[in-house]
């Protein structure tokens, strides 16, 4: 047992550094369903099997064809074909679902694979609840009718649905999830939470303990820049009516003030004080007023945050608890994050300063914890239902919370509810990816009408082009879209692999796109739309 | 009635073409089955408004792809495995792959051509075996070597080179090699001497793919500033003022290990040896405890010692896909290639951005113009060395400087061979004047970042 755990840690080492052990646990507890083990489908699963998804089930009623085995213009992998030497002689005998399952299993023995040799339409007819058991369903190359039916079942069961389609050199992904909450969004360039504009009591008294004018040189050059900025801010406040330096001119004056504090040598030239240079450099960001972002404010104002019941998910209970903190003990601020960046300083000064922030963060988190406890009690639940670890994680990430809500497929496709504004405004230039979206929708119509995709056979190309044009026009008319789709696009349509999205949904880390992603392999460009 | 006949005629035409291919025996013979290349054919045999202006759809394009086109893949790791899979599946049969590494268990979360039983074997060999066994007709030739082990005659044989490397130095070396293959007639570049270089890189959830036409478009060195500098902590922090757990680890790695030689004299710290990492981990914890620093873990220790970059399968799949798309486009001339740099990031949503990286007029690698070096005659050679390593556009690692003095080639300073380093070390403290260098003098500089020496023109300022 120990051996397996250690070797798993080694195997997954490179990805554990991205989403941590708890993220990996979420992944290993997940069970995803793939409908259609086509080229893109198997590529998606490969990228979930390799990092160790708990289980997958493939739903596919097709037999393997010669095309499956040879497919790919290099951007999609068909694991099926990679391993298909045995079947070459009679490629049409094997069921695609089974073949794909066996080959994917080979990639990672930690994962359990299953398959159902059935078309999704049959399952929707006979046993729609089959899909309720999954953490997420991926539908690849589904005809519009099947897609909408499945979409409605999954929407009502609150199962996230990822629709993927490739056609020619176009890739398309649509995320359908009612509500997806993210605590660890891992923002790229987050501002630090230093509270220099309103130092808390413990920080104030720590700053007091420094006497910049009276200290020895070796201490002066090793004083953390946070202390330096705080000290000079005190001076500035007393001269400027407690107003922060606001514009460039004032910030520049403040920087000069700090510069004057640099010690001088006997000959009058300034000492080399890197910590003071750091302070000057950080003036710009360090003096930002502490405030809560509008995204987080919106979260606090949500209905789920207001009405806590026994069914309320942990995210909203925690959000409410933090809101209580903000409105009471926090004095309008979130719980302190508790981390500070590295800076020039001697070990002792740095560690002491770091501990001031850490201890305050722990204090704030335990106050939030009390709010969590009382909220849970008020709906008859025990405090064990939300762990201390989760509370701490939530507090640390309070400034970066995100909620993603997607519109349902029914809303996207409905004539009354189609997002006309997004479509029309994105059609600017008529060369963007939105055109490809309209083309894909038209291709779907074509399939509905002719039970095949346009241009499958060489001899049909000419006629299919005019049939497709009719589909485009009927689509635009139905939606009352006054846009122009160039003939060129009707002539031409290729794949994108992609799957990090599934991992984001399952681990609840990082932020998924909302809700449509289109990739144009010809120009190697892409765009995201909210439809 | 005419309608019925028309499709008949067209269908017969396609059949004739297919038969012709079979008779030629070129690409239907080697294990191809019905429908195998249908998808590829649709791209090569049909014109479209977005195809390359010079593209002529024909059945011959498929022939070239399958039989003649020779591709070199550099790296059989995260990107390399994906690249090999993509290229082989799109019909390319003549593929070479170079990789100097052996398989480690931590590769298995994304380098899917490898299995647990392959740990310890050379990546190039295992990757080639896998592809050759599973894809009929494909002939991947592996090379368990460094890229520097090959010379121009090797690289010249390829139509396109794709890189999935993990170091900027290696990229620059490859870049320099392809530039050295360019031939100019009367100052005009001979296009047949250009070998396109498609370069991919990934890190966590970020990645990039670029197309380089050496001598024509921006090369690696033209955009050196795009590469983030390596994080190295200042020595004084490590030695006497640690604040972070990383500082404690670096202390043990850089100072304590050479002093204690825990596994014997001259035994270097091997990041892949768990016993070595364990030793570093424990000592780092002790040091951290002395300074009340928390956070030293085994995972952090390994990450710092090996400079580990996090990696997942999906980012590699995306970037390899972008790169293979470009290989296909260029090999088939069917579409206009990426012009010329794609950036990908899926931390927040899914983001791609494409732009045209510009050539640098005075690029030290591809501009053909000797670089100026401006120094006063009183400057010491040491300063020249510092400039060569610290300048953002040059970023050399351990430059060796030679000059022609009194008709003879004289090595002014060379770091990489101990005996020569010792002999030339005193030159570092001598001034350029003392060394006998004159204004306008040419200096030849060699470095790991380039297979060719770089010529500089010394300008002595007053």
Automatic annotation (TrEMBL), chain A:
What region holds the THIF-type NAD/FAD binding fold domain? 12-138
* GO molecular function list: NEDD8 activating enzyme activity
Pathway per its UniProt entry is: Protein modification; protein neddylation
Provide the alphabetized UniProt keywords: Ubl conjugation pathway
Q: Which GO terms describe its biological process?
A: protein neddylation
Q: What is one GO cellular-component annotation here?
A: cytoplasm
Write down the Pfam families for this protein, in alphabetical order. ThiF
Q: Which domain of life is it from?
A: Eukaryota
| Annotated family | Belongs to the ubiquitin-activating E1 family. ULA1 subfamily.
Physiological role: Regulatory subunit of the dimeric UBA3-NAE1 E1 enzyme. E1 activates NEDD8 by first adenylating its C-terminal glycine residue with ATP, thereafter linking this residue to the side chain of the catalytic cysteine, yielding a NEDD8-UBA3 thioester and free AMP. E1 finally transfers NEDD8 to the catalytic cysteine of UBE2M.
PANTHER family per record: NEDD8-ACTIVATING ENZYME E1 REGULATORY SUBUNIT, UBIQUITIN-ACTIVATING ENZYME E1
Question: What is the name listed in the Swiss-Prot or TrEMBL entry for this protein?
Answer: NEDD8-activating enzyme E1 regulatory subunit
| Gene that this polypeptide is encoded by | NAE1
